[in-house]
Design a protein that fits this description.
Helix content is about 25%, strand content about 25%. By secondary structure, it is α/β, with parallel strands linked by helices. The strands form 6 sheets. It has a 9-stranded mixed β-sheet. Strands 15-16-18-17 form a 4-stranded mixed β-sheet. Strands 2-1-3 form a 3-stranded antiparallel β-sheet. The radius of gyration is 31 Å and the shape is extended.
């Protein structure tokens, strides 16, 4: 139970004592100590008062000069793009992805590139033996790279080994869920073990200036396994996405303290490893000479990179009384329901007796709200069986009122479309063209319907 804290203050010099005494020890005056009662404190607070006894820290202003952090470029352009220019010395990066997606392959290729440039690179595997990693490197043509391999799960053993000799420029831990700290009880992979092991490894990276990369497992829903605080502890979080049945892989930056977020790097899985895709738009487009019913090309924007993807829609009319189905792959199903509602309420098109299927070609997932107009154009084309011109792209955000709202970075989207041979764009009315692409602007979704159906 809390008890009042008593103190005795000298009325002559202001000295404070914990108990009463006849003479003040500071000014030697007699009978000047008077009791003052402070607030209630617990026994813990009485013994552990953090308001004194510490080391004063230096406070600086926002206008102080700051040196830009040194970057450690890997030589893999797509990886460096997602990181914002390369690994930062003394930073911690967490990369997650589904099993077999290529996380270890990508990091082994990056480690080999840095090691061949003379940097000291240490690759510690907690899931595979060193011979298994060596065999994979030989299969990828990286057997001659001077990467230092190790197979260990004890955080103490790893830090003791790294403390001897030159600091590593890059340290890869594959994976953090297999690491074990003897300071914490529990099996590897538990919340306390993952947090404690990551904290010790990050502290080593900060003190020695090494770039640390932690590989993280993912749960069933795709999020990184372990405590959520793990993503707060690191400086950069990368997500390696893609279907194992598809050839391409997307490296997406979710968090980056040293660069822009939402940047992506595109790779293709080959027999020789992960290869960079310098033109990802060609990966997600169907090569066709003439327009196809229900297909629209949308210039998506991932960070600063425009990517052209194909949106495919299929509308099937049902007999009366049947319950229509809506199936979506690669887009938000709730947003599809909103577009269908706007087409019915504002444009007079009926989808209530039709099954609607929407797909993003190539397994790509679109999160850009500018895809609304392209989805609407694909739905209108599928319902009316009138193809969208093969040389046209569509972009724009649709409001519940049926208004077509402008989107960000429209010139960048059209520049990418012009690079791949597109001549026309369907977009908001306020969009201005800065190249040879001809723009058909629409203020409302009803104007797009009239344009595609040839009304007025």
């Amino acid at each position: 139970m809390a008890k009042p804290q008593k103190r005795y203050v000298c009325q002559a010099c202001g000295s404070v004592a914990n108990r009463w005494q006849g003479q003040c020890v500071d000014c030697s005056e007699w009978n000047t100590l008077v009791e003052e009662v402070g607030g209630n404190v617990t026994p813990f607070q009485a013994k552990h008062n953090l308001q004194s006894g510490g080391r004063a820290i230096a406070l600086i202003g926002l206008d102080a000069e700051v040196k830009l952090p040194d970057r450690l470029a890997t030589g893999i352009a797509e990886l460096d793009r997602a990181l914002g220019g390369g690994f930062v010395e003394g930073s911690a990066t967490l990369i997650g992805g589904d099993p077999g997606i290529g996380k270890s392959t990508l990091l082994l290729q990056a480690a080999a590139c840095l090691a061949r440039r003379g940097e000291r690179v240490v690759y510690v595997s907690g899931e595979e033996a060193a011979d298994q990693v060596r065999l994979r490197a030989r299969r990828l043509g990286l057997g001659d790279a001077p990467v230092e391999l190790g197979a260990a799960t004890s955080t103490r053993d790893i830090l003791t080994t790294l403390g001897q000799g030159q600091r590593p420029a890059l340290l890869v831990i594959d994976s953090i869920q297999t690491m074990h700290s003897d300071l914490i009880e529990g099996a590897p992979g538990t919340v306390s073990q993952v947090r404690a092991s990551a904290q010790e490894l990050i502290r080593f990276a900060k003190e020695r200036g090494s770039a640390l990369v932690l590989v993280g497992h993912v749960t069933k829903d795709g999020s990184i396994a372990g405590p959520r605080v793990l993503e707060h502890m690191v400086d950069t979080v990368l997500s390696f996405e893609g279907e194992r049945s598809h050839q391409y892989r997307i490296l997406r930056a979710i968090k980056n303290r040293f660069g822009a977020t939402d940047e992506i790097g595109v790779f293709s899985m080959e027999t020789s490893g992960l290869n960079e895709v310098s033109n990802p738009s060609a990966l997600f487009l169907t090569h066709r000479e003439e327009g196809m019913t229900g297909a629209t090309v949308f210039p998506a924007l991932e960070g600063t990179r425009p990517v052209l993807v194909e949106i495919q829609a299929l509308v099937v009319r049902l007999a009366s009384g049947a319950t229509p189905r809506r199936a979506v792959v690669g887009w938000d199903s709730g947003r599809l329901a909103m577009i269908l509602a706007v087409l019915e309420a504002r444009c007079g098109l009926s989808f209530s007796t039709c099954e609607v299927y929407l797909n993003i070609a190539g397994g790509y997932r679109v999160q850009d709200p500018a895809a609304d107009l392209a989805v609407a154009a694909a739905l209108i084309s599928a319902l009316s069986e009138r193809p969208v011109p093969a040389d046209a792209v569509a972009f724009g955000e649709i409001a519940l009122s049926g208004e077509v709202r402008p989107v960000a970075h429209a010139p960048l989207r059209m520049k990418e479309a012009a690079k791949l041979g597109f001549d026309r764009a369907l977009g908001p009315a306020a969009t201005k063209s800065e190249n040879e692409i001809k723009i058909s602007g629409f203020r409302t979704l009803g104007q797009l319907v009239d344009h595609m159906l040839g009304r007025g």
